[in-house]
């Protein structure tokens, strides 16, 4: 299938509007409609539910969205591999959950970039589920996450211990007070949830839940509140007096893991690069 059709499908899926999709793709709305019609004819399926006010995905369209993203990712990776091989010895695709980029992956990537100029790099933030899916499909070479993925023929190793600290925009708060009002619950994963439930079994339901420590931090700095955030991220903000540690709040320790194929072409290179984290 033509990747142009897939890219058009994904843009319509993202915007839920043929007109906005055509603007973003710099083509006429009739061209977008024709591409979607052509794609539906090739598949023999309806991908969108069309109405006067909105566009939604059919169940078939929802399944197609996932496959389309992987096809485009695979195509772009193949193109880059071929185009870059003339000037680079190797090319590594790295994915990790957003908070790990803030804690240590950004520095690790910078070290690789400066010390190994002949290694091509592609780096991306992703959700834990997408990291595991891309590993399983061979779309990335190494993935970083908080939970150990259950993947056959993959090496999974602990690379960092991440301490989460309960901090607040208000000083002199106690733990029960911090999690009772203005608490921003960050979904750090199953391991965090188990420890959190044990520490605060009687807490009220958090009014805000996010899946990114960065989102929680920006929300706290703008509007106030409290959240469990990585020590490495909040230490400078505490020194500046912009955030405060919650008195007597227990630390929650998480583990960061790296996963990569036992049979991947970059296995030895990855083992070498992971030593830079220690």
UniProtKB/TrEMBL annotation:
InterPro entries: LysR_HTH_N, LysR_subst-bd, WH-like_DNA-bd_sf, WH_DNA-bd_sf
Gene3D superfamilies: 3.40.190.290, Winged helix-like DNA-binding domain superfamily/Winged helix DNA-binding domain
Limits of the HTH lysR-type domain: 1-58
Signal sequence residues: none
Sample GO molecular function, one term: DNA-binding transcription factor activity
Keyword terms, alphabetized: DNA-binding, Transcription, Transcription regulation
Source organism, top-level taxon: Bacteria
Protein family per UniProt: Belongs to the LysR transcriptional regulatory family.
UniProt protein name: DNA-binding transcriptional regulator, LysR family
